[in-house]
Amino acid sequence: MSAVRVLVCDDQAMIRAGLTTIIDAQDDLEVVGECGDGVAAVELARTLRPDVVVMDIRMPDLDGIEATRRIAGASVSEPVKVLVVTTFNLDEYVYEALRAGASGFLLKDAPPSQLLHAIRTVASGAALIDPEVTRKLVGSYADRIRPATSNRSDSALSPRETEVLRLVAEGLSNAEIADVLVLSQQTVKTFVSRILTKLDLRDRVQIVVYAYRNGLVG
């Protein structure tokens, strides 16, 4: 199998170098480019076509949110997967990055093993949401992100699918959901696929956003 091709975007040279060193040390991962601002991130994502872009939020010229929107947004014909790596206490815009199309996020103080797992997960087409970050970040902005009125379509879901949706929104993995509901992981995976199809959502990140926007979790 070919290595997962990664583009690293962070305006701090030391952090960028550290991420590159960690990623390049893996046999199945390869850093194909790096940059320190959002404009360069968009350009390199278009020219290099990496499998995953590791994206900081606060960067000069063009911030990581807008860069993510231009790389992975709904209007992009050939989107590239984006993993946001950010500092939770300083960054109030991670939710907006998820709305812009990011496939997941991690804290910058996460251990290297989590970063590598996140890159592999996002590259595989899945989404990664740190449960702790999900609860603290999305939960803290729940009132802000819920619309005053909601045109909900989750009535199409079965009771079990709604239950699975809530657990996904709380940051549980398929294995954890299987334990809670006493189901097989394959059955949970099937439920998640049905939820995505019925609600016309792209991935688990959008499930989280949907659930909080519509008051299904709090």
UniProtKB/TrEMBL annotation:
Question: Which residue intervals define the domain HTH luxR-type in the entry?
Answer: 150-215
Concerning Pfam families, the annotation shows: GerE, Response_reg
Looking at the UniProt entry, the stretches that span the membrane are: none
Provide any one GO MF term from the record.
DNA binding
4-aspartylphosphate PTM positions: D56
Q: Which UniProt keywords apply?
A: DNA-binding, Phosphoprotein, Transcription, Transcription regulation
Q: Which residues form the Response regulatory domain?
A: 5-123
Q: Which InterPro entries match?
A: CheY-like_superfamily, NreC/VraR/RcsB-like_REC, Sig_transdc_resp-reg_C-effctor, Sig_transdc_resp-reg_receiver, Tscrpt_reg_LuxR_C, WalR-like
Q: What is this protein called?
A: DNA-binding response regulator
Organism ancestry: Bacteria, Bacillati, Actinomycetota, Actinomycetes, Propionibacteriales
